[in-house]
Every structure is written in structure tokens, then in C-alpha cells.
Amino acid sequence: MKTSLVALSMALAAPSAAAFSITLHSKLATTSLHAATLDAPIREAPGAGWEPDWEDRPGLAPEEFMQSDMTKPDLSGMWECPLTRWSSDNVDIVEAQKEAAKMPHCPLEMRASAADNAMGAEYFAKNKQQIKADLLKYGAIWFRGFDLMKSVKGHREMYEALELEPCLDPLHSSGLRKFASERDALYEEVNKPSLRGHYIGLHCESTTKRTAAYAAFVCFQKATEGGGRFLVADGAAILAELDTKLLQKLYDRKIRISVSNLDLPPSLPGFVKEGVKGLVDAAVAPKFDMDLEMMFEADGKAGRLQAVEIAESPINRHPVTGLPVWFNNAHNHARKLRDRRPCGVPEVGMTEVFYADTMEPLSLEDCMEIKRASEKHITALSMEPGDVLLVDNYRALHGRDVFQGDRFHAVTWFTWDDNEEWRGDERRMVEKNGLNKAINKMMDWLPKDFESQQS
Questions:
Q1: Which site among 57, 273, 372, 438 is 20 to 30 Å from 89 CA-CA?
Q2: pLDDT mean over 381-406
Q3: Domains in the chain: boundaries
């Protein structure tokens, strides 16, 4: 699922977005930013197994890198994000870990030579088949030092040379990302100043319902005052690394993830709470194209209404290769991990991960093992202008470290290219646009130092 799903949370919390016909106490719309516990844990920046050096390669000015090639067709009617391909039954955990451990390090680094740069888009057209084979083998490819992708126009030339088919973000209507260039199927990444102090943990761009097949993350401008490394880790390596007993437990019990909190006064009569629950369930949740259940007090907080995804396996077999991988967003969404690292999300947007069979939050011990195994295999990329990380979204997980100053990264999502039956026949659902734009305006209104107000 999407990073923190802040926008979904804000929509669930805002009466205007939910089209509420009743007026509630102000506590219904927001939760105190000073939330949480009396004994707050120490916040520490997570580590990474690999941190390549920065090279300070120059980029283009915004007025240059944002230019689109107006001779190319408008791609705004792109494919809908395809439905998630699940193959998670009858996994032998021990054998799965052995198989996953055989995979090479992710990502593969492909550094441009002078000759490569001279070829421009032809480099990618000529090497298309090998690049796609390497993507399946390694899970992600870091194209480093390529001049072509320093602009929106060049980024599109790159993915078109690879014959990749753009699709909508799995949660297009959530508003967490807006388009950087809609006609080029390019979303802006989470560069919002209000979230620059928020660490985005490892996740696939996926819900239980929809998952992009591939992604191409591009850097046009690295953070002007430091930080902002892009994080990537192999889901196979994490699977192989995790404690076998924990992996078996999570596989047997499955997990559920809550994506937002709406705190109602506990003293409200039951029929009022149920009325609010029904309104949110009917008016807001369907707009996010997710399988959500509205639940009261799942995390034990009195009066809290949470939107919770259906149960899912933490392990999935890759749709093409059959390789078993760690395929879930627990590293990003577990509350016990979020509370221990830089976090710029208000209480309404805080997420949680539950054992599906009992709806108990994951224990601290289990969360810390997920943290250890995940962060051991993170490569914290020093992406600079023109760099692209091409990701197999069923294999590799991604995230982003905190940053200072201004930063401009963008991403294009892709549907299946060689598997038309997996792609489906849905083109863009235009009715999603209104909520997307409205929530983005709310996010842009947040002050740049929003995260510091929550400490």
C-alpha cells in the first residue's frame, strides 16, 4: 500500500470529503498532533546495509526538466492499475527461504558510459530484452549517470523504448501523489515540504486489490540541503533473512493493516458512532478502490474508528518467476516502528499492522525482527539527476529517507506488458480525479514545518 496513506486518512477524517450531513464535534475531524503515549520511545533514523556515495552530478533547471514533448500523444487515458496477482497458498517456509537466499544482490547497478549516453533512447531500445531479463533476476535496476532521463521528456523516451505500458497509481484517488506531468503518465513522488521529515518505510506499491507490475523512479533534483536517499530492498532477501519461526507465525496467522484513524469522543451514543461508521463506509471508502472494513477500537483506543484492509499473506509468489518473496508493507505501517523513527504524519494518518486471526497489533519483538531483517538489505541510493530505479514491484520494496530543502523525484507506474490477460481492460477512471485534486490541495496547505509541530 501507499507509503503512509496520509491522504486517505485525511479524507476519512474530513467531513467535507465524506459528505457528512451531520455536524460533529471538532474532535471527529482531527486528532491531536501530540497524540500517542506518555512514555514515547526514542526516535532514531533507521539504518541501511549499503549506502553508495554521492557524486554531485549536475541536473537541469526546473523550467528545463519539466518540459514535455508536445509532439507525443497525451497519455492521461492510461491503463487502470491491474488487480493484485496472489499466489500464497501452501508455501513451505523452510524451502521458500532456501530458494529466496539464492538470489543476487538487489539492485543491479548499470552505469552509463560516454558511448551509452551518446546513444540516448536507442540504448534502451537496443538492450530492452536484456534489461527486462535482468529486472526479473535482480528485482531492480539502478540506471546511474544517464543524461537522457534528466527531463520529463527523456524519462518518457526511456520507458517507451523499453515498451513499458503506464498505468494509474494503485491509489490514484488518495491524493498522496499528484501528477508531475499528467500527459506523460508521470506522478510526483512524496516531495511535499510538509512530509520531508517523515521516513517512508519499505513497501510495495500495492493493496490487497491492486498492484502495479513495475515502476520507474526518476530523480530530476536531489534534496538541496541533504538527505532524501531512495531506499530499495529485495523481498526475496528479506524473506530469507527473517527468523523462520516468526515467518511461519505470520504466514499462518496472516496480517491486516489499518490505514487511518478517526477518533470519536468515547462518550458518543452507540447509534451516533454507528451512523458515522456507516457514512464513512458508504461515502468515502469506495472512492479509494480498496477492500476496507470500518472497525471500532481495533488498536484498543476508545472511540477510534479505523479503516482496515482485509487479511493478506505476508508471502507471495512472484507472478512470473514463482519465486516466494516478502510481499507486504509491515516495515512501513507497523505503529511500533513508526513511533521509533522520524515521522511527519498526524495521528489521523498513523497506521497499524495486526495479526489477522485475533486483530492484535504485532508485538514489539516481531516488529523489531522485521526491522532488523528489512534494514539489513536496504540499499540507500544516492540518486542524482538523470538516475532511474526500475523496480519489479512484486519483488523489490522501496521507501525514502528524510530530507532537507527542496527535492524533486517522480515515478511512472506500469501495468503488465507481456501478459495482456493480467492487464485487464480498464482504462482510466476519470471520476477519481476530483477527490485526488481536493486532497492534494489539503496536503499542499500544510506548513513546511508541519512535522516539527508533532514532537
A1: 372
A2: 97
A3: 6-22+51-454
Indicate the DSSP class of residue 206.
B
Q: How many CA atoms lie within 13 A of 119 on its CB side?
A: 15
d(CA 293, CA 306): 8
Q: How far is it between the farthest Cα atoms of the chain?
A: 71
Grid cell of 85 as nine digits: 496477482
The pLDDT score that the predictor gives to residue 95 is 98
Backbone angles phi, psi at 67, to 5 degrees: -70, 135
Distance (Å) of CA 175 to CA 29, 205, 209, 418: 18, 14, 18, 29
Position 18 scores a pLDDT of: 32
In the numeric block, the cell 495482456 is attached to 420
Task: State the CB neighbour count (10 A cutoff) for residue 310.
Answer: 15
pLDDT in tens, 95-152: 999 999 999 999 999 999 999 999 999 999 999 999 999 999 999 999 999 999 999 9
Q: What are phi and psi of 379, to 5 degrees?
A: -105, 120
Beta bridge partners of 26: none
How many whole angstroms from its chain centre is CA 25?
Answer: 32
Neighbours of 38 (CB within 10 A): 4
Whether residue 19 is predicted with pLDDT greater than 60 in this model: the reply is no
Omega before 41 cis (within 30°)?
no
Which SS3 state, helix, strand or coil, does residue 401 take? Answer: coil
Q: Are 85 and 422 in contact (CB under 8 A)?
A: yes
Please list the alpha-helical segments (H only) found in 213-297.
235-241, 244-253, 270-283
Task: Dig out the grid coordinates for 247 from the structure.
Answer: 515467518
Q: Does domain 6-22+51-454 have CATH number 3.60.130.10?
A: yes
Contact 451, 101 (CB under 8 A): no
Can you give the pLDDT at residue 286? 67
